[in-house]
Design brief:
This protein is α+β, with helices and mostly antiparallel strands. It has 4 helices and 5 strands, in the order H-E-E-E-H-E-E-H-H. Strands 1-2-3-5-4 form a 5-stranded antiparallel β-sheet. A hairpin with a 5-residue loop joins strand 2 and strand 3. The termini are far apart. The C terminus is likely disordered.
Length: about 150
Amino acid sequence: MTELMWVRSHVEQLLRREWGVCRVEVDRDGDIPFRHGTAACWVSVIDGPPTMVRVLAHAAYELTPSPGLLAELNDINVRALSASVQLIDDIVVVQQTVSPVALTGPVLAQAVVSVAGIADGVGGLLAAMFDGVTPHRAVDHDDTRPSRCVDEEA
């Protein structure tokens, strides 16, 4: 088993435990997508060197760069403890990269909660202020966890 395969398997296992599911969805790129509020999020294993784990979220789309938008992003970055926020093309991207060396559930959970929380928290505001859109419409319930497997609900 290669290092990349081992890290992917480990990350999937940690997320299954954290989310309380029997399996996580993996897209064709090998990323694990999930939703948090209005944000579209992914957990990715980056094939290095070095191999790393990245949690990434799209907070808002279709934003035109402007001094006001860039000032808002700078303010958000100053307040973000462990994640970074960038404007890439017309997308506000929030991300945090962690080492897979001795990666634990709490460390991965912190990255997931931080990135997803920031993206959901600022996406709607930035979209409203700068004529953009969020990846998902706002919902009345928390849908960050994938559905439980039928055999786990019994």
